[in-house]
Amino acid sequence: MVRHDKVVIVGGGLAGLATAVTLQEALGEVDLHLVEKGVRLGGRTSSVDYGGGEVDVGQHLHVHAFENYRNFIHKIGLADRLFTQSRLSAEFRDISGRSGHIRSTGLFPPLHLFTSLARFPFISRSGKVGAVLPALRATLGLEGSEPRDVSFGDWLKENGVRGTCVDRLWDAFIVPTLNATSRDVSKDMGMMILKRVLLDKQGGRLGYLEAPLSRIGDAAKDLIESRGGMVSTKTSASAVKTDPDGLFRVKLANGDTLSAGTLVLATPSYVVSDLLSPAIKKELTTPFWDLRWNSIVNVHLFYQRPVTEDDFFGLIDGVGGWVFNVSWDDFQPGTHLCVSISDPGELFELSQDGLCGLVIDQLETVIPATGSTPLDDCLVVKRPRATVLPSPGSDAFRPPTSPPADNLFFAGDWTDTGWPSTMEGAVKSGMSAGSEVAAQVSGEVPRPRE
Question: Which of 16, 348, 381, 389 could form a disulfide with 266 if both were Cys (CB 3.0 to 4.6 A apart)?
Answer without folding.
Answer: 16
